[in-house]
Amino acid sequence: NSMMQYVAIISFAVGMGGMLDKLGVLDNILNAIVGHIKSDASLIFFTLLTGYVTSLISCSQPMAHVLTGRLMAPIFRQRNIAPEILSRSLEDSGTLAGPMIPWHGYCVYMSGTLGVAWATFFPFLFLLYLTPFVSIFYGFTVILYGDVYDEACAHALELAEKNGYTFVHPFDDLDVATGQGTIAMEIIKELPLVDYILVPIGGGGLATGVSTLAKLLNPKIKVIGVEPAGAACMQESIKAGKVQTMPQVNTIADGTAVKTPGEKIFPYVSKNLDGIITVEDEELVVAFLDMVENHKMVVENSGLLTVAALKHLDVKNKKIVSILSGGNMDVITMSCVVQQGLVLRDRIFTVSVLLPDKPGELSRVSDVIAKQSGNVIKLEHNQFVSINRNAAVELRITLEAYGTEHKNQIIKALKDNGYQPKLVRASI
């Protein structure tokens, strides 16, 4: 009975949404519940409570997931307050408009149940494979507009105001952030002694929910936000003490390529985040290769931010959870990222050597490489590098190696055999 009372209180609190939050009631309710859980010290009670809360406020579909002390597996769970958000539309025109929301599947399902139309806005350069997929599979309208998220969002808001549609913001919404915060509850349930939680930041909704609830459950937990270096709008905003707009964004992490963070959620991020790490695109490429090869997991570039950030942390013997926020990546992008990852890891490289244009020279070079266990994957023979072909023609050799040490071993062998190998841009 006690458990159900708390569940009912949480359900009511979330249903009231932003109003309770503004009055400070939601914090008090959560503090009281957290205090009861701590004083009761009952893992069974906590597990059951979390199960009920997840089903009530996360709108989660049954989906197996794995959580370890190292990484949180990429899972797609509908955590947001979709029914509450959809209920707004019934008070308006009955039509929803939202830009690039990562949880539109469940909202579309709910909107279909309630007889509410739904439209989602994407930038033109958004994942090409996903645009027809979401419109066919989920059965809602997809509108392409602008080059980045912010332009698509502005257009969606303009149409919503013009036509009286209900606008659902993908991150600058307290209800959305509250639903995303249940990730922190799951983490602490399965790893109660977690020291660090790393969370990706685009507009800040996910970071708001996770950091706020994590601090309520255990103020000692360090919550670190991670942004792409080419779209670090939240870091710049925190430095300035107010929301800032980036003049432009440039990153392969398209899910977090946001120029302006959320106004409503900014105070929560400023208060509850313990720091922000920025990650270069090259680090994401290497992280993707690592996840595919070593963990057999496909994680989108925005979700890889927290994996790449691990190398930036100067900690030892700490329990760290990296939140992998999604796996939306088309096969063409995947192929490009894998190839670049192999190049950055020195698993593939290209050398240029000059040699006389006469029979047997190619065989000699191949023999040197073979003795070092190098694998030739591409050859380019250029006879026009010199006007004297007898003196020198260029041979560009693209090779596969085990890594940096093996690569250096092959280059040294070529030098020892009288060649002057020159590293050039890898040709794949």
Keywords, separated by commas or semicolons:
single chain, 428 residues, alpha/beta, four-stranded parallel β-sheet, 18 helices, disordered N terminus
Structure notes:
With 428 residues, this protein is of the alpha/beta class. The protein has 18 helices and 13 strands. The chain is elongated, with a radius of gyration of 26 Å. The termini are far apart.
Produce the secondary structure layout.
Layout: H1 2-16, H2 18-23, H3 25-40, H4 43-57, E1 71-72, H5 82-91, E2 95-99, H6 104-114, E3 117-122, H7 130-137, E4 141-144, H8 149-163, E5 166-167, H9 174-180, H10 182-190, E6 196-200, H11 205-217, E7 222-228, H12 233-240, H13 266-272, E8 275-279, H14 281-295, H15 305-308, E9 320-323, H16 331-344, E10 348-355, H17 361-371, E11 375-382, E12 393-400, H18 404-416, E13 422-424
Parallel strand pairs: 1-9, 2-3, 2-5, 3-4, 6-7, 6-9, 7-8
Antiparallel strand pairs: 10-12, 10-13, 11-12
Major sheet: size, sense and barrel closure? 5 strands, parallel
- Global outline: elongated
Q: Please give the radius of gyration in angstroms.
A: 26 Å
Number of E-type strands = 13
Helix content: 40-55%
Write out the strand line-up for the largest beta sheet, numbering strands in chain order: 1-9-6-7-8
- List segments where confidence is low: pLDDT < 50 over at least 5 consecutive residues: 1-26, 32-81
| Count of DSSP H/I helices | 18
Percentage of β-strand residues? 15-25%
What distance lies between the first and last C-alpha atoms, to the nearest angstrom? 64 Å
The pLDDT mean sits at: 75
Q: Kindly name the structural category.
A: alpha/beta
